[in-house]
Amino acid sequence: MLVTMRLVAKFNSYYADKPVLTTMVTNSVLGGVADTVAQTITAFRMRSSQRQADSENGIISIEIQDFDKEKPPQWGELGYAKNRPSPFDFERLTRFMAYGFFMAPIQFQWFKFLSRAFPITKTSATGPAFKRVAVDQLMFAPFGLFCFFTFMTLAEGGGRRALMNKFRDIYLPTLKANFILWPAVQVLNFRVVPIQFQIPFVSTVGIAWTAYLSLSNSAEEE
């Protein structure tokens, strides 16, 4: 609790001095955490699938250190290398952190616009909060997903065809999932959370959401 209070105090002081930069750094760090979670989930799934497949096929799992160091196994021998989980992808982690960093100023201005357009007061709180959520979900959510998939595809070196395939295959399912999760989160965010914590709150809850996006994006690549 004491550590949390100190972090909040530090965040408030940095936010008061440089709100946009503080939001950018916070968004970047949380985006990195989310992709790390997603890559960990992917590696765990691959290991579980490999163990299950080996068990069903009666294959004995052989650890790397059990092989003769002077005679490393060939590519694909005994399923080695071919079925191993991919190593941690630091380039992918960098892409997610960069996306969070560069998207933060847009989010910052958007939240400021919502707070001005639909002010929440002591006498009028619920109505403006729901209006903010409606405008946010109908306008910013589709735009945000468009930015995400476009940025990731281009950063991965994909061209127009890869971008079109991604929008055709996973954009609408992801947008539907967004409409299931985020309205409730945003009602709480706009109704209760102070404005300086709204983007960090969204990014913190968004660790699970960004992990989902990361898994969806990597599945489309595969």
Automatic annotation (TrEMBL):
Keywords carried by this UniProt record: Membrane, Transmembrane, Transmembrane helix
Matches recorded under InterPro entries: Mpv17_PMP22
Membrane topology per record: Multi-pass membrane protein
Location of this chain's protein in the cell: Membrane
Origin superkingdom: Eukaryota
The keyword Iron-sulfur is annotated on this UniProt entry: no
Keyword Membrane in record: yes
GO cellular component: membrane; mitochondrion
Residues passing through the membrane, by range: 96-118, 138-158
PANTHER family: PEROXISOMAL MEMBRANE PROTEIN 2, PXMP2 MPV17 (PTHR11266), VACUOLAR MEMBRANE PROTEIN YOR292C (PTHR11266:SF50)
Family, as annotated: Belongs to the peroxisomal membrane protein PXMP2/4 family.
Name under which the protein is recorded: Protein sym1
Taxonomic path: Eukaryota, Fungi, Dikarya, Ascomycota, Pezizomycotina
